[in-house]
Amino acid sequence: MSEETPICSAKGCRADAVWVLAWNNPKLHTPDRRKTWLACEEHREHLSQFLGVRGFLKDVVALKDWDA
């Protein structure tokens, strides 16, 4: 297991991730498949909206509670 701290998926952001955004693209993935982006506090809303307007966002979970 890596000891690196997960970082935010927002372009150019190097902040520690504290949220997991679970999503899938129904045109590409089966309904049960989940891809993930990580988000810091600052980018959680922006990334959620980006996925949400496309109908991709399925769940937002605190990283500490995420069980991949």
From TrEMBL:
Domain of life (superkingdom): Bacteria
Name the UniProt record assigns to this protein: Acetone carboxylase
Organism: Streptomyces antnestii
